[in-house]
Specification:
- This protein is α/β, with parallel strands linked by helices and 153 residues long.
- Strand 4 and strand 5 form a beta hairpin.
Amino acid sequence: MDEKALVAALTARGETVAAAESLTAGLVCATLATVPGASAVLRGGLVVYATELKSALAGVDAELLAEHGAVHPEVAAQLAEGARDRCGATWGLGLTGVAGPSPQDGVEPGTVHVGLAGPGTRTVRTLALSGDRDLIRTRSVQAAFALLGEHLT
């Protein structure tokens, strides 16, 4: 589902979305905001690029971060929950991963975890993407929109 369809679906349902973004650094929210009428559904977002901000701002368990690092499926799930909770949204998206070009904490570029939290929903999708930094970040946003879209249709 692209950003226009996502905004339309959320609007029709009277629901909202927020995001806690690491590797995408605000691209989810920025992309949604290009759609006229997005203000009815986009609550806000947290850019938590630095590992410690994932805990401080989005509520990710500090012990989880210390034990597994920032690029982990449970981190994505907790980012999604944190975005939903802190922004008062129906749905929360959480994105963490490695855009490259170098590995991070032993995790290869293109490894991305997308979390979704919402009514009765807590799920994570793990992706193995290829391409340069920009393409990996763009595909991560598309994957987040697709994951949310699956729960709206």
